[in-house]
Amino acid sequence: MVEKEATLHLSQLMDATDVMVAVYDQDDRLRFANSAFRAAWHLEDGERLLWSDFMRRNFAARRGTVISAEDFDVWLRSVLGRRGKTGFRAFETDLHDGRWLWMTETMQPDGWMLCVASDITSLRPDERELRQARDMAIKAAETDELTGIASRRFVMSKLQALVKTAPAETSLPARQTAAVGCVAVLDIDNFKYINDRFGHSIGDAVLMDFAATIQRLVRKMDVLGRVGGEEFVLVLPNTTIWEAEAIIGRMLAEVRQSRPVREQVSFRYTFSAGLASAQAGDDPADLYRRADLALYAAKMRGRDQIGIDIDGHRTSGSAGG
Fold first, then answer.
1. Which of 49, 70, 84, 315 is close enough to 54 for a disulfide, judged by CB 3.0 to 4.6 Å?
2. Is 230 a catalytic residue?
3. What are the extents of the domains in the chain?
4. What is the fold, at CATH topology level, of the domain defined by 2-141?
5. What is the three-class DSSP state of 229?
């Protein structure tokens, strides 16, 4: 009875406050939102939409969050590179109704997220402009300019954070209990030939298509970033080597079906991947080297497949077919 009464009061307090509160599950689907949040983002009672879906709807209606981009998908790809990738994130944003918000995102290891937003419109406009300029500079540093996904700086910081993470409870044998996730190095096959044969504009189209295709398959807790040229890094927290292999196998299959150049529907491309398991306390540079060597092994076996590093030994993996 006491718990039911407390739950009732909590629900009433949530709907009485002007602070906007929402909870998302591991798939980024809205599971709870109080009245203030629903009003700000134009959500009906009972709607349980994906975050990306109601943001897309509001973008088309020019309401909710002000999105300073002509192409929603380009903006979405950039935001998804940061959303839900850290235990806690705070930032400012503005709404079409003129309000300026301070927002926080608190993540659980299982992918559930609490979002809280407070109205800070009354703060001095000149201070707001300075903070907005600062936030834009941070976002630019964390975003790859061409593809819109995370930059080398951002994804490598997440690789470093991964090996500093305390391992989760697990039923694995004792020698594996320090596992904290996996890291994969992804590389587009024959990219130099694509550039030389078709030109750099086609090469750029392939890079952008690859980033967009892989980002669609990345889980909320994973981080995908471009580290240079045609090479990308994927950080997969709390993921076994075999789970990671299955995820990348689906990516291999999806990229094979992609057609990045509308004018040349027969044009296709593939990529190869090197995968390594991360242990708590690993040296980030050594972990990256192991995944990179596994990638090299996959390339030597014929490309369009996964190389896997297990305890420093590289083995063949799935071709994702």
1. 49
2. yes
3. 2-141, 152-316
4. Beta-Lactamase (3.30.450)
5. coil
Distance of alpha carbon 197 from alpha carbon 203, whole angstroms: 10
Catalytic position from the list 3, 44, 105, 230: 230
pLDDT (tens, 9 = 90+) of the chain, 321 residues, equals 657 777 776 778 888 899 999 999 999 999 999 999 999 999 999 899 999 999 999 999 999 999 988 999 989 988 988 898 888 999 889 999 999 999 999 999 889 999 999 999 887 666 767 777 777 787 888 899 999 999 999 999 999 999 997 665 544 444 444 689 999 999 999 999 999 999 999 999 999 999 999 999 999 999 999 999 999 999 999 999 999 999 999 999 999 999 998 777 789 999 999 999 999 999 999 999 999 999 999 999 999 999 999 766 556 666 655
Contacts of 187-190 with CB under 8 Å at 24 or more apart are 187/230, 187/231, 187/232, 187/271, 187/272, 187/273, 187/295, 187/299, 188/230, 188/269, 188/270, 188/271, 189/269, 189/270, 189/271, 189/272, 189/299, 189/303, 189/304, 190/269, 190/303
Task: Tell how far CA 11 is from the center of its chain.
Answer: 31
